[in-house]
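Interim report, section 4.2 (structural modelling).
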Amino acid sequence: MKYINLKILPNLIIFLTILSLCHNMRKDDRNAVLNLTGNEIMLPDSLGFMIQDVPVEYDFSFADYKVVTYIDSKGCTTCSMKLTLWNDLINEFKTIEGIDVNFLMILNKDADEDLISALKLNFFRHPVMFDPQGTFKEKNSLPSSPAYHTMLLDSDNKVVAVGNPVLSPKIKDLYRQILTENGTERSSELCQKPVVALGVVNAGDSVFRQFNLVNNGKDIWNVQGITTSCDCISATISSEMINPGDTAVLTMSFIADSIPGYFSKYADIYFQEKEKSEHFLVHGFIDNLNINN
Amino acid sequence: MKKKFLWIAFATMAAAVAVAGYYDHSQTEGLTPLQIANIESLSNTPQTPFDKACVEGKTFCTPNYMGPIENSLPVNW
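Predicted structure of the assembly:
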């Protein structure tokens, strides 16, 4: 009997290990997902939205999907913010056509000089809410672990998925899969960063941004035409023909109309050699303070 | 004797498969495919990378200033 046990035990362990790994799940992760998914997330009414140190009007709920992240005051807040990674991720998700994705970072801190400096130095021009009392966490009964303080919400502000996409490519892929179910991902072949966050623009002001279009291929690209999303956007390209190895510069100008709040405007460049256009987008907030004054 | 041993081995393995299958089923019972994918993506993510090092005053960030020095080698500040 002793002989049989010794022989069988390794087999048993191997089988159990292999099969229990079919679904690799941590208990805490399971509980967090079970408890949070489907819950409606409420924002504290008393707190306003800011772009760096400028208050803005922002209809966070008015979007097909939203990503909300809560950074608590434990430890190093500026480290947990991961601003440069968020910048890239937000711009990446903004390239998905056919859906609107809104973002919000809620900081469990006062808007002190260090935090504002961090936002400015990292060129973080996306909405932030300062919540020193931790109202957001309390109101939504969030778990204590920061791993579950970032969520993807649907149009009704209900939690669709949990997890921080800037800390894990697995979670980022999951978010992207959900978003691209209803939208189409557009990647640029010529430009590494086809999306620019302008931040706050005063009503009536005119701003411009330049995009480098680099032809790394072997074929010549001939510009067929440029279309824009509105009259408030104009776009010009430095060269009508981009030879292999050459770079052309697209200059996009945006004149802020008088409607305050969030805007997202684009220009499409069509090439004779390509079926799909190259898509360039600027987004930000129009501030109406000048008009009110 | 050899035949008996093989039978016992087979029976044990079958039991192991059943137990493991039940365990796996109980983990995913009542979950949607999206929730399963979500839990798996969370479980495959180490919790709070970088931050611990920062809190402990070690290497990866400059606390209370610019945030993390992304993609850089550890530097003692």
